[in-house]
Amino acid sequence: MTENIVDLESAKAQQRGKRRVCPTCGAPSEAKYQPFCSVRCCQLDLGHWLNEDYRVPVTDFDDMSEVLLEDKS
Length: 73
Known about the structure:
It is a single chain. The protein is mostly helical. The chain has a domain at 20-55: Erythroid Transcription Factor GATA-1, subunit A (Erythroid Transcription Factor GATA-1, Chain A, 2-Layer Sandwich), CATH 3.30.50.10. Helices cover 55% and strands 0% of the residues.
């Protein structure tokens, strides 16, 4: 059990040591604006979501029932 705690602590330390980059511009991210580097990049990303530039794929339930029926045949 103590081995797991030590491994978890070392993993957390490695994550803190890594410098992540801003997904918008590629600059090093700042802790205050994680995962972005500035307020500007946060707002740009929000604008992309609000303009529906980013979309999460959705599967309709009707399509799923057809797929399940085809698998059983």
